[in-house]
UniProtKB/TrEMBL annotation:
UniProt KW Cell inner membrane keyword: no
GO molecular function, one term: acyltransferase activity, transferring groups other than amino-acyl groups
UniProt keyword Transferase, yes or no: yes
Domain of life: Bacteria
All copies of domain N-acetyltransferase, residue ranges: 20-173
Keywords assigned by UniProt, alphabetized: Transferase
Entry protein name: GCN5-related N-acetyltransferase
């Protein structure tokens, strides 16, 4: 299913990416995405603490997107369910954005930005209260992300300056003591490094 996303930023490769579509990820994309993630992050990406929030938990199919051109996957963004415990955000619908990656030879051509805008638009439409991610604030603040600590949200064993949050609903925007990010399933519990 192709999606028409709004607000795509200026793209220096406008000619070639004009044919690029953003789509909901399909089962057929799985191996290609794993290969893209290995090349974008390196094979030790599985050691990252953020993966402990994903172990044995399926990503949210309606919030996993690919950027595709001529049948080739050029970018990927996925979301995992998470829980927010021990704070005012308990019970809110929270998701962990990532991994997001773009074909290395096409970095900084706007693909990541288009995936981010679609991800935020769709998470909003699907009723997500708050998006959390671990990444470089310099990149994510342009999409409205702020330090999760500003909403009183902490993520065990992650570097606090890299933990970002984007509240989508009014009740999430009002958070000051959101709570602790925890695994969503089978039980919400903090992650040990
Ligand atoms: C991060 C990533 C998804 C961004 O996608 P992209 O298509 O390359 O980025 P865009 O074209 O949308 O945006 C380019 C801008 O983002 C900046 N940018 C890209 N990655 C950045 C990073 N990690 N930190 C800070 N800024 C970054 C570029 O410098 C550029 O800035 P400018 O607009 O001021 O010139 C992509 O570069 C990538 O796959 N990187 C490797 C994997 C990775 O680090 N993923 C994110 C993990 S948190």
């Amino acid at each position: 299913m192709a999606r028409q996303e709004k607000g795509a930023p200026h793209c220096p490769f406008a000619g070639r990416t004009a044919m690029m579509t953003l789509q909901v990820e399909t089962a057929a994309d799985a191996l290609v995405i794993e290969d893209l993630l290995d090349r974008a992050f390196g094979p030790d990406r599985w050691l990252k603490t953020s993966y402990r929030y994903r172990d044995e938990i399926a990503p949210l199919p309606s919030l996993c997107f690919t950027a595709v051109e001529d049948g080739r996957v050029l970018g990927t963004v996925r979301h995992w369910p998470i829980a927010l415990a021990e704070g005012a955000a308990q019970g809110m619908t929270a998701v962990l954005l990532g991994p997001i990656a773009v074909e290395p030879s096409l970095k900084a051509t706007g693909i990541g930005g288009r995936l981010m805008h679609l991800a935020i638009q769709e998470a909003t439409r699907q009723g997500v209260d708050i998006i959390v991610l671990v990444g470089d604030p310099v990149y994510y603040q342009r999409f409205g992300f702020r330090l999760a600590a500003e909403f009183g949200i902490t993520m065990p064993n992650e570097s606090a300056p890299r933990v970002q949050a984007l509240p989508l609903s009014p009740r999430a925007q009002a958070l000051t003591h959101g709570g602790v990010v925890a695994r969503a399933f089978p039980l919400a519990y903090p992650v040990a490094a």
